[in-house]
## 1
Amino acid sequence: MRLAHLWDQSKCIGCGACVAACNAANYESTDAPNPTWGGLRTNILRITFDLEAKPYLLLVQCQHCENAPCVSVCPTGASYVDGDGLVKIKPELCIGCKYCMTACPYGMRWLEPETGLPRKCMSEECLDRLKAGLQPVCVTVCPASARAFGDLDDPGSEVSKRLRGGRVIRLLANKGTRPKYFVVVGR
Amino acid sequence: MMFQEIWDPWLIGPFLWFAGIAGMGSVAYSLLRLFKIEEKLKELSLVIFASVVLGLVFVIADLSRPANMPAAILSSLAQGIFIAKLTESWMTLGITLLFLLLILSFLLTLRHAAVPALAKLTDAKWYLVLLALIGFLVTVYSGFLISSAPGIPFWNTALIPVLWVLSASICAIAVLKILVHSEHVSRFLTRAGLGLDIGELLALVALLNVPLYAGPEAARASAAALLVGPLAPAFWLGVVLVGVLAPMALGFLLMRKEDRKLGVAAASLYLVGALLLRVLVIQAGIFEPLHL
């Protein structure tokens, strides 16, 4: 099983519902600041490019890399790739060295000041939703169906179907991390 | 431009500096002992032990979950993960090497300060070889630790471990230069320090020049920040002038005639420069910008 996220830039209306829902579900709608990224405590980073000709935004989150640097550098095994292909964290093994944060080429981990834990997609609430057979909250709330989540090994999964139908890129693919966060940029 | 703020430069920088002093200091101790140069070995052993301890203090101070560290490491060990990680994570290897150097240098200090009977153990050839090996590996590890963090392109260069070994060797020579009074040894230290200083200058030029021409966007920005950007005053003044050129000039003077005061001044400048080099390299780290 290789669970993966897909974000369709060509469908995204930039409403921020996924960001707000992640904050609500995983961080109890707190308005406490995210000291690493700034802004809300959420696992999705919204990057806006102010290009004169064509402004666009990029929604980024943990890429759940198959060759995850955060996992290989972790000294105690706190960061690991689970059997479902998702990169997860065991808090009890984390010493807070932040090596995973400097190792992530995407900068997709942020530090929670209260616990000293690096946080990232997916957090507890979304993992619980998966166990219950539901989709991650960001996928569920998207009004434009710009998001999908599923198993790459299942040709019938929503992610697999949409990967076949769109022009897809992976961020910083040259880093050799084999990310499983797919960005649809057109058809 | 946003510098990385994950690792505090003033905590991780001094950690790397102390690790280098302890590491190459251990190599120096072993060489002195093996070549039967007995002067100031007690003081050197104290410097090595204190450097390991201070290095650990600084690196632990940067942890965001220090209280969880003992339980996490023990649990990782009990589950066999820590052992498996030795082949994968430089930090796992570093924790192990620093722990070993802590024990080895503690016994060394004890032998000199309180328990002379330990000399049978610590003066043995195998112990000295082990001390030198672990010391060298600690220095090498402190370089690979940051060069193997793929998030920061400026750090991802094979030059950093080499530069760290050169710079730490200069630090060990500087410590000896401050401690030792023998003119014969001082002269050798001056020559060795000068040679390594020239090597360090070359490595430093390469570290900054290559990313400027062929590096990823973020590495180029890091090099530019050090050369002409916000970190440039500290880099040119602290690292290049104070840490490399001034002690090099003093070294050439000392080649003509040894002078204790000048030697101590050159050594002190070397040490300050080496600390600033590490702080600034950590500070200059920038993540690769994301775009489509």
## 2
Amino acid sequence: MTTNAHTLATQQPKQGFLAWLWTWLTTVDHKKIGILYLCGAGLFFAIGGIEAMLIRIQLSVPNNTFLVGDAYNQVVTMHGTTMIFFVAMPAIFAFLNAVVPLQIGARDVAFPFMNALGFWLFFLGGLILNVSWFLGGAPSGGWTAYAPLSTDYLGSGMDYYILGLQVAGAGTLMGGINFLVTIINMRAPGMTFMRMPLFTWTAFVTSALILFAFPALTVGLFMELFDRVFGANFFNTANGGNGIIWEHIFWIFGHPEVYILALPCFGIISEVIPTFSKKRLFGHTSMVFATVLIGFLAFMVWVHHMFTVGLGPVANSIFAIATMAIAVPTGIKIFNWIFTMWGGQVHFTTANLYAIAFIPTFVLGGVTGVMLAIPAADFQYQDSYFVIAHFHYVIVGGVVLGLFAGLFYWWPKIFGKYLNETLGKIGFWFFLIGFHVTFFPQHFLGLMGMPRRYFTYQAGDWLATGNMISSIGAAGMAIAVVLLVINIVMTQAKGQRATGDAWGMGRTLEWSIPSPAPEYNFGQTPLVQSVDTFWKEKMDGNKKVTPAEPYGDIHMPNGSIIPFLMSLSLTVASFGFIFADETGTGIHKGALFVAILGIGLMLLCMLVHSLKDDHGFHIHKEEVLEMEKKGEGA
Amino acid sequence: MKKKWQRLLRLIPLAVIAIFTLVGCGKPGLSTLDPQGPVARTEAGLMLQSFLIMIIVVVVVGFLFTYALIRYRKRPGQEDVIPKQVEGNALLEVLWTVIPIILLVILAFPTVAKTFSVSDATVPKNHGDNVVVVKVTAHQYWWQFDYPDYGITTSEDLFIPTGKKVVLQVTSADVIHSFWVPALAGKLDANPGQTDSMYLTADKPGTYAGRCAELCGASHALMYFNVRAVSPSDFTAWTKEMKAGPSAPATASAQKGESLFKQDCMACHAVGVSGSNTAPNLRNFADQKNIAGFLPHDKSTLEKWIKDPTSLKPGALMPSRGIKGNLTDQQISDIADYLFTLSVKHNQ
């Protein structure tokens, strides 16, 4: 098949399940990859949510015996690991993929092949982690996997953690690099950095954080792997190692990770609130600087997770002040969002309800964050339920509310149909109230002496009431998630079709093209003349954004199965390493051979991909014109 | 409309009062909100101070937020109205940058000062009885307390004199643990291969609950201990009694228990003045508050414990039914009788 003859006509979907599956396995279209990420995140969200419910069932009454000891530690570890790495991260990437190229007026991402590879690495990494339940037990060292507990004292479960995260982390790093390059290089003419929508800005800073944070995780995980499989002594005190090294490495990654998750959600809020207030984002420039500053400070504060390690008052004080400083740019954002609504017209759509609810919830999480930044007080908070409450206010109150806002906001853009608003609003109230009922009492539980990762508490410890309330709240959140699933199924069956400017108040470029966007995104690359280009063009009375070029043939990349196969070979290698360590007494040679085989297969895939000339294909001008005509009717 | 607002405003002080009545809640001897010593009090003071500043922030933001939502909500018939597109406001933006900075600076001074003061665990030379040094070693899943100045060792219950500075030199024998007595002081991690110091002081005699705060394995949630604060004179007496040790068992069953203990348990446990680092030293077992740090201190629980420790404390290293696993119920009962004679109190 020559590159030019291969046109859109030959790309028409073939019939049957296998053909459908093949399309998804080989796709390099960022919009489809976005959907894949969304499905992956959804799947793991269900798993992580069930784990959360198990935790709350065990803790609902004192001296409960439902999940005891290691079983509880497994559930806690998997809940944390799953929610951070396999729910929040892919959900972020879902929106990055679905929205960023459209917001900057690009036809694609910079590296479509690598984009697909990133997804499959994430997805198979998640599977590696989750099959541990069926192959001898899940990891139980906490999502932080502190050494030497996780390297010397726990069973093979920790290997699933190490390799699952290693594989998924490689995918995330690729995704970060991809979006960094995409945003720098592929902006439409006229879209200067200061005209970039705030979601794209946060995507940009997040990608930069990924670029610097994930290699730390990679290195740390390799060290843990070598300690476990090959008997290295990085974290073994008896042989001159030191477990605190792992804590530093983990949090040098782990702290920025929080902002990797939070910043895009700030971005989502910065899109949703202006749209549904019919107003420009207040203080766009200061928002950009606040975002960059938060990104910078994210790397300066990791020791605040380690105030109780014994690093001494000098180190603790320096990192305390650096941590407090983050409150300033975050505060700027909060006030700017409020003043975006000020003088506007606040529409209470489901998306906006989530975005609005984000503000007070995140403020509560933020103020407890400043309280935690005080080392002497943190000696009391650290590793208690106060911390649990704090980071759930930040990660659920900040990230998940943001993601839900984004989900309802961009669903029509991604799928061409609206989610049901009534059901959405009922779900919203269940989620918001359930959330606060769950996590607000946990502040007090912590102050009353309940440490985190405790599978039980004693009947006389006065902790029963708070825990019971907390468990009831969790049930409310579970109902909300079930309602969302029902909503999604209903929408797929008979949702209302969405127009290009689905909410009628779209401001940024993604709303200027049909919903869902055509394969090539923009028939003509738009010419960007201001912040909120589409809004400005509409105000000027134009129906379309001024194009920067005439219609022409559009170059597209070919799909490829190689990303999937590469990820699969790394999965094979991972299982080799897992089983090589399983006995804990020595390396299993056969399993090690499987590991080497897996790596060999991956190298082979790389070779094939390098040697094969693939110039992609063109969608011809006539076809573009025809599709654009159809799109206008949509 | 305005009156409604005023009513709402009146609720704010009420809410603040409600929150303050919650402060001070929690089980006595366990809660950080009911501090029982100067270190915990300093920390609680900082908590309160930061809490007050944060309340101001929450109230201001909450007010602006609620006002914006109500005042600028979409009203019917506004479909075609386009609000003014405001770019920003330099003055406002500078204002909400500078005000938080001021608030943080106000908070930063006590933060640094108190962080240094509660971390000062130096031990003066020739400290005599004014400072008590305890070497704390965390094990999966129990606590060992050595008193180098007195040459005694105990476990699970940390005896301290009231009013004195107690310097704790914390380390771990295996994985990372964290030493936490909420009512007396914040926590300090127990890191294998290194020793870090903290200090605490108890105002009055009493039992204060201690917890392991860093995930350390299956029974992390059961790695409890007790801090037993006694008057300085009682403490001095206790150190002497510990040195002297318990008197020999009197009853026949306890004597049988003693010989069984020597056969089956002495490989790990010690009852000597200093002793074993692999399992708790049981010299003053009968004087302790709990079995294994958290269980009720009675004979039937002790028998259950000896029979099958891991059913009560998952992952505990003590083998079931003694080291050989072949003790009869009678033998276990004898051992329990013996252990309950291990009291140093009777010397008083």
